[in-house]
Amino acid sequence: MEPENPAYSAELAYPVNPVRVRGDLDPALSRWMWLVKWLLAIPHYIVLFFLHIAYFVLTVIAFFAILITGKYPRAMFDFNVGVMRWTWRVEFYALSVLGTDKYPPFSLKSSEEYAADLQIDYPERLHRGLVLVKWWLLAIPHYLIVGAMLTGGTTLYMYDDDEWSGAGSIPLISILLLVAVIGLLFTARYPKGVYDFVVGVSRWTIRVQAYASLMRDEYPPFRLDQGAREPENR
Known about the structure:
The protein is mainly α. The protein is built from eight helices and four strands; from the N terminus they run H-E-H-H-H-E-H-H-E-E-H-H. The strands form two sheets. It has a two-stranded antiparallel sheet. The protein is globular, with a radius of gyration of 20 Å. The two termini are 30 Å apart.
């Protein structure tokens, strides 16, 4: 009996995902710049506001195009992937990861030079029937899990009139980022375990978004692929 090929086993365990998310941690992050990056990114928020309006409109048009022809118009697909890519870079820089101090480019195009990037393979054909249900019904389990990861966390309590009462909750992602910025502030290092988990949550969320936005028919895996790169690219 021939010995098992480790490379072949790894390929079976982690097939190439059509949605690939990269987020390379900057090894020289500033101790304090996280305080202002969200403010520096305001021009991006303004542009992305209008881009997401276009993203929504084009997704609706793509819905009918897929339903009738089984194809996602290529120009619309490339534009919407570009919007997702731009959004991911801004989130990586200023919001959900804080993984780089390099200002994100004002561009829809892919770039190997920037720390964060996103690739989605264009589908030559899409199932016309799935377009009716995958964005809401089939994606519900993922919505619940991603929602729990993004909003679940710690509830704050206050003591008032001889009793404890809930005063709101802190989302899990906010707790993790708080740990990250404390690590940066005192050690100039981003805790690796926290970083890997935060990027993994973002990767899962983006895969679900691509599926719900009708870009792919492959069901997103129930798997938290942590770390800077997809498993097959590490």
